[in-house]
Amino acid sequence: MTTTWKSVDKKSTSQNLADHATNNPISDTTLSSWSRQQKLTMIAGFAILGLLLAMSACLKQSPKPALVRVSSPAPIPATAAPAAAAIPTITPTAAALPAPARKTPKKRPANVNYTDANSGVSFLYPRKFALTSGDKAQPQLAGIGDVPMNFVQPGGIAIATVALPAGSYPGTDFASAFFNVNVNRSVSEQECAHFAFVDTRNADDEPVDAEKVKIGSTGMEMTSSFSANVIKQAETQYYHSYENGACYEYVLGLGTEGFATEGGIEHVNRDEVFAKLEKILATVKIAPVEPEHVAEQAVSGIIGGKE
Length: 307
Fold this sequence. Notes:
It is built from five helices and twelve strands. It is an alpha+beta fold. It has a seven-stranded antiparallel β-sheet. Strands 1-2-12 form a three-stranded antiparallel β-sheet. The chain has a two-stranded antiparallel sheet with strand order 4-5. β9 (218-228) and β10 form a beta hairpin. It is rod-shaped, with a radius of gyration of 64 Å.
């Protein structure tokens, strides 16, 4: 059996392929177009991937933010220049603030002024002494009782009495002391120069005439009286002056009690006590009295005289 090999004409084959390509243009165009899109897609994918890798690398290399710690500002050196936009803050210090005004306690005067409009009498006396006036102004001495007025006519009225504190002279036989003012409008000027009773302390027990004295700028008549028993003594000094149509009487009294030689008790200094009382007497002033006050006081004196 004989095999017959047919020879293929290359020229004919080439011609056939060419004819096929010419007769099927869509297939060639599709292949060519698909290849370009794949290339573009691949290029874009690689570009995006590269961008992501680059961003990841940058994030890894960037330093982490440090934690902020709030603290008080550091003192600025004296040589450092202040920032141009900085606004200085002025903090008031204790020295710059005005000190609050301190209220200075007012000191009360050592002496008190007493004034009686009805009689016109005024005087100064120490604040620590006790003052009584009106019906309660009748003076008393401890252990002796009421001290009588020394007018030659009735009608005397007690104006005011100032008493020393009971403990003024501790360790002594001091019991009480006072300064007293009385007035009598029923006594004439001639009668005002006399006293109902006078000093009888002389050796013969004879009365002693009143003594003329001057207290400040006022002339007065003065007498004294003394009484005592076993353990109590009382001494009084009376002063008279005539003004405003009335007789003014000032009484200084001192009372003592006890035995000065027992228990360490000493005699009180009588001159010292009367010196304090005379200082009050030296401040006495007599002002003019209104007529209605004179009439009111005259009625009071009449009623007092009847009693």
